[in-house]
Amino acid sequence: MTTTAQPILQLPSDLKSYSWPPFSPLPADTLLATRQLCRVIGNNDANRNLVLKGIDLDIRRGEFVSIVGASGSGKSSLLYLLGGLDRVRSPLDGHGEVYINSQPVSRMSDTTLTAVRNRTIGFVFQFHFLLPEFTAIENVTMPMMKLGTRTRREQTAHAGELLELVGLGDKRHRRTTDLSGGEQQRVAIARALANDPEVLLADEPTGNLDKHNSQNVAKIFEQIAAQGKRTILMVTHDPHMAEHAYRVVTLDDGQIAGDVVKGGIKV
Fold it and tell me: Which residue has the higher pLDDT, 245 or 6?
């Protein structure tokens, strides 16, 4: 696996003058990928900012990848684009392509992208976004109810299995307001896994947790990764959390500054 040299871009106007080569081909086992991905943030010329600058990145099936970098380096912007929560709609928004299961996002309608996202990707955010009036198991079943591929009995059984996985099987019937912050985040992880996504995207999943609860989340991610069934892509500021990943991608000022897998092997 290689990381393509990144172009030297600083301003949104650079996108018009840069001579872009053809996209490089995707490896056969790639689940998520970007090619020449640039993202511009801002509504007018006075505040437009180029936050991603020609990113080429391949995320293979079964990988556990951490994206690290200083605040403002583009980590969350990249994650949201890879997850289909954001997209480049016009040259004013940026340049390049995002692929999900080798399918270019630019060719998907909003309806198609939503369906692909619901079927393929599970999200864990810094804040759990659980519904407080419902129990843990009810929160976990909700994505399954929306997708509609399981019976109600199957939904409840699967939700129970996922809560067991995150160590909360005995608290499945508690309202989420009666759980600690660490327990709420573990329910959020179970909910993200509800529809058996191929990839789990996590944006600062331990940002609001203490050291003990952060370690619990790290162990859960390691357990999920060890099963070999899912890809995990995680953005984090926490170097201890990043160490649990099998591969660490470092962003600096919107560009890939490092790409290393465990054992010190450069990707």
Answer: 245
